[in-house]
Specification:
Strand order of the largest sheet: 1-7-6-2-5-3-4
Order of helices and strands: HEHEHEHEHEHHEHHEHHHH
Strand content: 5-15%
CATH class of one domain: Alpha Beta
Number of helices: 13
CATH topology of one domain: Glycerol-3-phosphate (1)-acyltransferase
CATH superfamily of one domain: Glycerol-3-phosphate (1)-acyltransferase
Distance between the termini: 43 Å
Structural class: alpha/beta
Radius of gyration: 20 Å
Shape: globular
Helix content: 40-55%
Amino acid sequence: MRQSYTDIQAYPVSGLLWLTDHLFMFPFLRRLARKKTSSLEFCLGGGESPWQSDADKQQIEQDIRNGATFLTNHRDIIMDAAWLSYLLRTRYGIRPYMGIGNNLLGLHWVEFLVRFNRCFVVVRDGGPKEVLANAKHLSDYIGYLRDKQKSIWLAQREGRAKDGNDRTQLSVLKMLTLGSNDFLAAVRRLNICPVSISYEYDPCDYLKAREMQCRRDNPAWHKAKGEDERSMKTGITGWKGRVVHRLTPSLNHWLDRHPELVQMSRNEQIAAVAKRIDYQIHSAYEIYNRGHEFEQYLQSRLDLIDLPNKDDEFLRDCLRMMYLNPVRNHEIALQTAP
């Protein structure tokens, strides 16, 4: 039987939710920010992004007040959703619904957290017919939430970008608009506000590099039991440095400026919207100043990797690429706006 997306959701008692937020979740996340980051920042445009003016920031704020689909790059299994939810709830009183993969629900402590954080399940396994049915069910549920002007968080892709090269998966956009005859109208209904998440240091960088060598050496390699849990715990407890969440405007403004999109085929429209999301995320990255000591940091991460056939040169290149790709994508985005 296909799992209902309402099986894992927030407990319905608002008083219990309030107590949980203020007695457990908020103090935990504030303590985590104090101990594991040098700063936790929530920005409406700004930085080196194209959205600098007060008018830009007011527009972004207006975009999110009536509910939005926050589509973000995917760095950390737990913290991407946890930080954004915390920042939106404490600043604007917005409590977004969050999509999580069903592969995480075997962990009891994760189940406990998601019940208090309005999570719905993204079922990723099954045969072709089951995958399609699950995607349709999920698309309908997200549409239902947006009709009620609820906010939603989703990652722009399935799984984290191991090499830091964040790209929107076309399949995510196809799922979100499944069943709609008018793709652009469905995008408007979603009110997609891309959010760029930047970590000065990724606690899971060495685990990602290790996975990249494992997959290189054995294309059939699969994660061992407990690997996801290890990544989740490392992502929560590891040092992150300066963490920046930068919100960008709703795609609806971009659609207003490009009426020619209506003449494109659906596949061309999907590709154009994905390119625009990538542009907004890339151009809004926070770019960190890294000195000579950064090579020492990479060596310290390399030392943590335990593999019998450890390829130091390949692993170092993987680690370096994780931090270089966002810089390169940022520079390219600022030069070419779709």
